[in-house]
Amino acid sequence: MSSANKRVTRLDSNYVREYDAYVERQNKRKKRLYRRLTLFAIVAVSVFAYLITFHLNQRELYKEKVSEYEQLNEELDKLEVKEKNLQQEIDLLNDTDYILQIARKDYFLSKDGEIIFNVPDDESSY
């Protein structure tokens, strides 16, 4: 027998047509299933990628905010020290003895009968 003689004739019966229709429906179901799974995978990967990018952006923003917070805290500490110094100066300026001392030192004012001698602070200039 040759390969040309091995042909099988297909029966044209109701059962064969129903079976062919069944196989075709199964193949279509498989195609639809694969399409749905592919679409779901694409959506899942897209959502996952978006969440990862969002998370990384939030981490970067958090680092920037922490850095800014630390910088502002340092500035606040400096301003609090400056405020404390200024408050001390205000308290001193309310004291008349301190004002008289400044007037004598900076403006060479004296009481009646006082003589003011200007002595350099640095003795190494001799």
UniProtKB/TrEMBL annotation:
It comes from Salinibacillus aidingensis. Residues 59-96 form a coiled coil. InterPro entries: DivIC, FtsL/DivIC. The chain crosses the membrane at residues 37-56. Keywords: Coiled coil, Membrane, Transmembrane, Transmembrane helix. It holds the Pfam family DivIC. This is Cell division protein DivIC. The lineage of its organism: Bacteria, Bacillati, Bacillota, Bacilli, Bacillales.
